[in-house]
Structures are given as structure tokens and as C-alpha cells.
Amino acid sequence: MKISSALLFFISFAAFGQVQKFKINGEYVLDNSQKTGVNFELAWEEDKGKITGRYSDNHFSREGAEVVGVADDLGRQLIVNFRGDKQGARSIALITSKAGPDKTGTSVPVSIITRDGEGNPLTTTKLDAPFVAVSDVPPVPPAVKDLPDPAMIAQKEEQRPECNIGFGEIAGYCGRYGGLISEESDNKNSCDLLTEDDLSMELDTERNLTLYLSTLNELVADVPTHRIGQVPPDPENPIDVTSRTCGPLAGTRLPGDKTHCKRLNLTGTFLIERGRQHFAGTYAIYDETTKQICRYGLSLNKE
User: Fold this and answer.
1) Among positive and negative, which fits the CA dihedral 13, 177, 285, 240?
2) pLDDT digits 0-9 by tens, 44-61
């Protein structure tokens, strides 16, 4: 796949933790016999490292597709997830540097990767793209005394007695976590976790890990869940938790009779990121009978 050098970044910046708006317009050429040209637009918002947006083009997705991603000091990674195969592709990843206003007028490196339903790369392209930044008038920052101390927040969390004894290296990390979930692999289009309303993960005071597939609501008695399993006593960090369940599994099209058992596995690390408790890891579902695998990347902040 090739990308034309006309690719431009248009960015709206705001200071002091406000939402940043980004837009990419450009054209790339698929490395196939027809040398198909793809004109695309990618627009997103970035808030505290979390990216959400929309992608559309004239080849893979005229109707548009949702974009999720993360931004940190190492750069930005944006994932376009299609609902089903689109011209053989199931997702597109765009990776670029964490450029700021000081890079206006220069070029930034961009990598574009298309993947199939199993997560295997179809095409990979690297290029330097022209970069333009447009700054909004920043709002007046709050007084320093009004800003919370991230270290104090983390310290108060760790002081919770019900989330301390027996929690080992993850003491103080109990609670509900929400944020980014991106599909890494779904070899037979078996799972639909990305279409759920509001996914979140909880580590409770009994060391149980649960994935909620919908927003908790007092009016809804049965919120669909995945019971991932229990963290062992005094665990190390990162964690690696596996459980087994038989029968239907919410958010999937895997066989639902009780002879079909699935293994649920969560691996990852609890950490403090920008003053907030954070979990980064991978969640995998494996059907023991059909050998179908669904794998998701998680980047979650404590709510």
C-alpha cells in the first residue's frame, strides 16, 4: 500500500486538559493489481489520552466506522474497527508521533496497517506526512490550589483497608474501570463486544474480576457480564487470571449449549498514569470445542 504525500493533519489544540480535535485527509494506493486509490477522512477527539472518532473512505467504508485509540508520550495509536469484513479487511491501525504545535510546518511519521479478521496484517505502509497545527485560544486555567494532587489521590486509594490485605502488589486498585477496548483478533467473527453500550471492568473487594457489557442501572436487574475469575491471594503485578465457563456467553455468537465451554483470560498491569489509577492489558475468549478465539486490548481508567 502506498500513501500520497498530500496527507495533512489539521489539529485544534486546547490547554489544561481540554479536548483536542484532530482531522486527517488524504489518499493512499493499495498495492493490488488495480492499484486502487483510497480517499479517506479520519476525525477524532482526544481527551486525557483517550481517542474517539470516525473514519470513512471510498473503498472500505463509505458509511463510516468508529475509531478508538490512545495517546501517550510515545505517540498515538488509532484503530478503525469494521463490523464485518470490508474488502478483506476487518480493521485499520494508524500509528503516529505525539506531535504538538511546535511541529507545525514539519512532517511526522505515520504507519498504516490493515488487518484481517484474525488480526493478521494485510498491508503495512510507512511515510512522513505534512503536519499542521491550529491552536484555539486557551481557557483561563484554574488556580493551582484547586487542582487535585495526583499523588494524594493515589495514596488515599491505597489506604482503603478492604482493598489492602491479601491484594499484594495490586493493593488499593479495587473499583470500576472504563475506557478503551479495541479488537485485536476475532478469527471467525464470533464476538461483538465492541457493539455493546458501555463496557467496564471491576475489581471488587473479594478480588473478583468482572467485565460488565452495559451500564449499571438500578432499573436493569440483569446486566450482562463476563465473570473473568478471582485474582489469587497476594498477587504480583502484572496479573494473569483464567476461568472456565460453559453455556451461553453474552456479547458473542459462540455456541451456547452447555457442552461448549470457554476459557476467559485476562492479563495486564495496574498502574498510576497521569495521577489516575489505570489498567492496561489483554482480554481473550477461547472456545474449547470450536477453537474460536476473540482477543481485545484494554486501556481503562478508574471511574
Assistant:
1) positive
2) 788 888 888 888 888 888
